[in-house]
Amino acid sequence: MAPLTGRSTLACRRASRALAAALAFWAGAAVAEPPERVASINLCTDQLAMMLAEPEQLVSISRISHDPNVSVMLKEALKYPINHGQAEEVFRLNPDLVLAGQFTSSYTVGLLRRLGVEVAQLPIVNSLDQIPDAIREVGRLLGRGAQAETLAAQFSADLAALRASPDSRPRAALHYANNYTSGDKSLANDILTAAGFANIALEAGLSGGGTLPMERLVMLMPDLIISGQQYPGASRSEAVLTHPAMNALRDRHAGSALSDAEWVCGTPAVLRAITRLQEAGE
């Protein structure tokens, strides 16, 4: 008998799962089997999958999760093989399910689906209140609903205990490369608010993400400046982070803090970001 190819193996496994599901249906319990092999090609789905997957269920995560600058679960991530988000590469992993992000390459997602691979795209998390829903959705996809419910409930309880309701809120500025900032309807703004700060981007009328000219930021005189972490190597876009005007503002008036990997994704890791901000404001 000729050896099975990767595509044949995948087809056989799917046929077996389909048969098992059919038998369960006729037995009166139409419950789909959890996927045996899951690949994630997005940093944020990597993290939720690592939190929830059964041992050996998650077979690959995105290469970005091995980057210490953005990976909040680096130690855990180093246990998993990485992929580069290429359809051909991911297909050879014989996954039953691929977890992707809302803005993952449409070419990659489309090709995988044409090859018969199930791809679940999770939306961007834009608020703290959306995090439990994201946890539950990944749990549902992995067949780990009970574990997801426990994690979601714990996150909600921890967040409620952390949320600050001060009489007056210190004013904070989010200042990233190219003078980018986050306004309302963003996860970063929710993190600021939960930590007890007011986001000066709202004073400037910004919604979502956008640029806040450095001159305007200096005139607004925030109490705290939260800058993005600088990456190794020179970048002209990051020069604004250490501009003399910004350094002078920090020296004269504002404190400073760094936003790091804990701010990137809508996962329970944002609780640490809130705690760090509260400590910076003390």
From TrEMBL:
Gene encoding the protein: btuF
Keywords: Signal
Name under which the protein is recorded: Vitamin B12-binding protein
InterPro entries: ABC_Transporter_SBP, ABC_transptr_periplasmic_BD
Domain Fe/B12 periplasmic-binding residues, every copy: 37-282
Pfam families: Peripla_BP_2
Keyword Translocase: no
Native source organism of the sequence: Roseinatronobacter ekhonensis
Signal peptide: 1-32
